[in-house]
Every structure is written in C-alpha cells, then in structure tokens.
Amino acid sequence: MTRALVTGGSGDIGAAICRRLAADGIEVLVHANSNPQRAEEVCAGIVAAGGRAVPLLFDVTDGAQCREILAAEAEREPIQIVVNNAGIHDDAPLAGMSETQWRQVIDVSLNGFYNVTQPLLLPMMATRWGRIVSLSSIAGVMGNRGQANYAAAKAGLHGATKSLALELASRGVTVNAVAPGIIAGAMTGEVFDRDAIKTLVPMKRAGQPEEVADLVAFLVSERAAYISGQIIGINGAMA
C-alpha cells in the first residue's frame, strides 16, 4: 500500500486531503504538532470509514527531530507521497513587522518544506516513484498587504518546487505546488466576511477544502505522471 505524509493534517485543508487520499486506498500519516488531539480525530474518522491512517507528531521547524522521525518511518516502509501543507501566518505591514514574525512564518512554511522533504528523497527515489505536493497560496503569486513574510515563504516554495522537479524528473518523482485562494475554514472566517469574498473572488464564493483535496489527489495519482514543476492555482478566477 502506498503511504502518504500530510503535514498540517489536523487543519481544515490538511484534514480534507487526508480523508481524500485515504478514500483512494492510500495509508495516510496525519501530521500535527500543536494539535495532536485533532490529528487523532482525523485518523479515527478515516479508520471508521474503512481507511488506514496513523498520527505522526513532530515540529517541522526542528530539523534534527524531522530527520530522526522521518528516517525511521522511511526505513520501516518508504513514504512515496509527501504533501507539505503545514504553514502559519502572522500578519503585519513590513514596516511594523518584528523579526520574530518574519522568521517564524518562513521557518514553518519554507524551512519546514526542506526539513520534511529532504530526508525522504533518497528512499523515495529508490522506489522510482513518488509525488511531492506543497500547499502554497495566491499570496505567493500576487503578494498581499500585510503578508510579506507569508508571501515570501510561499514564493520560495515555488522556486524550490521547480528546482526539485528538475532534479527528480528522471526518477519517476513529480513535484508540484498548489496555490489556493480564499478557502472556507476557521482561519478564513476570521479575516473575510461574505461581502468581502464576493468583492474579491470573481466566482463570488470561497472554495471548499474538499476542492483543494481533489486537486491534490489528482496530482499524486498515476494520471498526473507527466505534470511536474507546476504552480497550480485554485482560486475562483482571482488570478
């Protein structure tokens, strides 16, 4: 059975991705750090529906911890699908942004990509098949006021995605990024009301986590074997 690691698997989009991959017969490692109970709940729901899932707890900003835990998992059985979904935002205009705000956002979203993906590459390459999908954002494409840190981290993912795709193209491993716009969920509800969404989104609605999950599920499937190095927007025609 193919195994997938979904970082940030306890969040709205992450949980939807975990459920969708499990429904396709993939064993899912549901990652969490600050919310282990939520990861366990996601796993329990997947198992109750007949799928396979286990929680995996670690801090994506801790390189040593990532290498230790992921090396052990990969040695037990290769992880052939990696979905880098963990990310945070801590917004402020750059003129008033603290160094801590800048570093923490980049540490999770961009350094976390390296800490999680790098230890799994050689075991994945040995199988001659793999899928790496990173969750970016429309902010990484267009920028966004008050999110210079977040946009920089996500734009950095785009460069890493394109470069890694070139490195792995001959090894049967594809590497892509998905850049959602406004997606319904706990964090979106704190920032955007319905009127704002109707103004910002040409389709006049927020996307659903399940719609993002469907796109990710396609990208990790055999049907997407010739798609690599791409940044794919899912944003209701915002860009």
Polypeptide structure, described:
With 239 residues, this protein is of the alpha/beta class. The chain has a single domain, classed as Rossmann fold, CATH 3.40.50. 49% of the residues lie in helices and 15% in strands. It contains 9 helices and 7 strands; from the N terminus they run E-H-E-H-E-H-E-H-E-H-H-E-H-H-H-E. It has helices at residues 12-23, 36-48, 63-76, 99-126, 138-142, 148-168, 186-191, 194-200, 209-219, and strands spanning 3-6, 27-32, 53-57, 81-84, 130-135, 173-180, 231-234. It has a 7-stranded parallel beta sheet with strand order 3-2-1-4-5-6-7, with helices on both faces. Helix 1 (12-23) packs parallel to helix 2, helix 1 (12-23) packs across helix 9 and helix 4 (99-126) packs parallel to helix 6. The longest helix is centred in the middle third of the chain and has 28 residues, at 99-126. It is globular.
What is the CA–CA distance across the termini?
37 Å
CATH homologous superfamily placement: NAD(P)-binding Rossmann-like Domain
What is the global morphology?
Answer: globular
Strand content: 15-25%
Q: Tags for this entry?
A:
239 residues; alpha/beta; Rossmann fold; seven-stranded parallel sheet
Can you give me a brief rundown of this structure?
Helices cover 49% and strands 15% of the residues.
Write the SSE topology.
Blueprint: E1 3-6, H1 12-23, E2 27-32, H2 36-48, E3 53-57, H3 63-76, E4 81-84, H4 99-126, E5 130-135, H5 138-142, H6 148-168, E6 173-180, H7 186-191, H8 194-200, H9 209-219, E7 231-234
Parallel strand pairs: 1-2, 1-4, 2-3, 4-5, 5-6, 6-7
Helix pairs in contact: 1-2, 1-9, 3-4, 4-6
